Amino acid sequence: MYYCYLPTPIGDLLLAGERDALHLVGFPQGSMRRDPETDWIYNEQPFEEARRQLTEYFAGERKEFDLPLALDGTEFQLQVLDELKRIPYGETTSYGDIAKRIGRPKAVRAVGAANGRNPIPIIVPCHRVIGSTGDLTGFGGGLDTKTELLRLEAENSGLLQ
Predict the structure, then answer these.
(1) What is the DSSP string of 20-48?
(2) Which pLDDT band, with edges at 50, 70 and 90, does 99 fall under?
(3) How many CB atoms lie under 10 A from the CB of residue 78?
């Protein structure tokens, strides 16, 4: 597995994967903070496109990602991750809404768990999922990071003036 870091306004993101797909985006803080494994090899080259697209995202110039991703998990978890990718830039939805959209309206907690184990946050936009009351809920990069990502998107989608 290869890895590199990308400096961003929310701190240095860890990018990890193979030459053909991104496997992981790790936050600099929070429960999803990750360090490279001892057998990983530092190499920025496999991540040129991911670095470019993430840099454009943080500059407010990119609203969708087009990258090869290596997502793994159960069929249910992958279904949730696929639904996360459908949440439009600058918008939010609730865990309950996601559960309904995948045809499992009672699986709200399971949706939350699948959302929480998303290995490629930002690109698979789990930060756009909030509580049913509109409150920000747990986030692997910390609530300050979630707030910053939502603010960035709101500003660049014209929702904030």
Answers:
(1) TEEEEEEBSSSTTB----TT-EE-SGGGH
(2) very high
(3) 13
CA distance 128 to 30: 17
Mention every residue, 6+ apart, whose C-beta is less than 8 A from residue 113: none
Please name the residue that has the structure tokens 């692997």.
Answer: 140
The verdict on whether 126 is a catalytic residue reads: yes
Question: Is residue 62 classed exposed, middle or buried when 0-12, 13-18 and 19+ CB atoms within 10 A define those classes?
Answer: middle
- Measured in residues, the chain has a length of 161
Task: Find where tokens 């790790």 sit.
Answer: 26
pLDDT in tens, 100-156: 999 999 999 999 999 989 999 999 999 999 987 778 887 888 889 999 999 999 998
108-116 and 75-84 helices cross at what angle (nearest 10)?
A: 80
Q: Of the residues 25, 126, 150, 152, which is catalytic?
A: 126
